[in-house]
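Invent a record, attention on tokens:
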Amino acid sequence: MIVTKRPKLACRACPGTVVQAPAPPRLIEGGIPTEALVAHVAVSRYADHQPLYRQAQIMARQGVIIDRSTSFWMGYAAAEIGPVVTRLQNYSLRDTVRTLLPVGFQILANDPQFGSVLVLDNAFLAVVIAAHRFGVRVRPELAAGEIIPRIDSVPTGQVPSGSELIRLMNTPCPANLMRAIGDVLADKGLGLEPLAVASVRESSRLTPRITPLPDLPGVAEDASSKLAVVRAWLRCWQRSPGIWFSAMPPSWWTIEVRSHRGVFQDMDHVLITRQAKQTFTKIWLPRLLADLTQRSDDGGTRLLAANLTLEIGGAWRRCPICKSVHRPIEPLNVCIDCEAPGVEDFDPTTDPVFMARRGFYRDPVAHALTSDEPMIMSLIAAEHTAQLNAAQPEDAFSQAENHEIRFQDIDIAWRDTDPREPAIDVLSSTTTMEVGIDIGELSGVALRNMPPARANYQQRSGRAGRRANAVATVVAFGSADSHDDHYFTTPDEMIRGSVTDPRLTLENADIARRHLRAYLLQRYHEARIPDMDPLGDPNLFSVLGRVREPGCSTGRISRSGWPQAAWSLSAPRIGGFRVSFRRRTAHSYWGDDPGCRGCGRRCHRLHRRRDRAEAGIDHSGGSVVR
């Protein structure tokens, strides 16, 4: 139970004035459902595949009356979890960049002309080169004016060089891809360094400026130890304030990347002696800030990616307490994150504990670095359902139509102001996708559970294998219930055999009465409600009139006169239907067929309906039948 406390406050100087704190906003404005109820309905609908009308019946048995028309709750829930969906999509892009970035650096480092000047600021170039080399489509969401450059000078599978590299280097990086590159470098759990793949270090042109720095007693007394201390300092800067790339938008400054003075508390775990701290602060820090950082226009200091590069492979150490991974610093034997003793060297390719924890994310990167033809794949998934929003006046397509077109690799950004969205590889759709929906060629269909019958299976699996794809793959997952288990053990009963023809009962009086009432109400409202300006913002409740008007005969919408008015408006149009309805229902209502002469229970019910209709009692649409 959620208890909302709204205190009442009074002013001593203003007698009689009491102010109460406003109630917090609800997820459903003006409604009583809480976030927990909406989340329960959404999970039951999409995770457990319980339609809304079934949930309404289940809750009604427990005394909770929820109409199935409250499906707009799902729209509010979708808006709330929108940032989560965007975050998940960014994770997919980050997984691709995590593999392509070190591979691209390794390819560019082997270039005879470009390798000597390669810096971290060329990260976008490295991703583009690796994607072209291994045929991977990098598809971040593009803003207006952003593009992913194409390489036409050499075919896919080869590496460009010379002027083509210069052209690609001058191409601006899309913002979403730039954010993914920064996340791959700064992530403390799944970044390149925590996965023991690569770490950030100073560029090769700045290395000769670091080794002449004075010794740090007890910490760095040779060239290799001095470089290790500087790289530990860069590691602290990379994690907290961040690294500034030239391709970053100016608005990211102080938001994505912040200013810092260069004094980090974690460096106390490295500078273990007092004299080493004093020497680093007084002599090392000013020189490092001058060589590696830049003063911004607002007076802040930021670390430049143009002064850094990546070091791929090498020796690694892991802390037995916090499990952090970092480069070795001789002669230190403590963790530079938690200062725990007993840090040991380890091999990330053979260590069983490390492989069990992070091998799933490291293996694709390690395989791409060591293989000539690695299998790298980037997938983008989207949803296709009727719950998606409809097309707005300024939009040419609805969200569902947008996903259908992108699923067919069609670019719909025909205007300069249209956002360029990536193509969709996997389309998650409802089982009742309409027959007229065109989603192009399908190479495979995956079913979350076993369909109810053979016809449902054919309708869903028949989406694949059309047009140019003569062969398709259909995968159906069987859950633990008896229905799925039966068809999992005997799949022929689901795949083969004849299909029961669908049947539509035209003699159902409930359906006919429902359609008649809806049509009559529609005709009556069209005649009584005045025309509204579609470009305006009309209030629906004010258009219908006042609350007391439907109960009297003077209102715009009158309860007493609407049946006669609606029938007079609709009779010329549904006269033929009325006759047809009478002919079809007379046989069933009056029981004139030979099967009803036995005066069984069903025949007795039919005769009773006939007597009520002849007596003028409205029952099951009798007044319309007469």
Remarks:
- The longest strand covers residues 198-202.
- The CA atoms of residues 226 and 411 lie 52 Å apart.
- The longest helix spans residues 562-590.
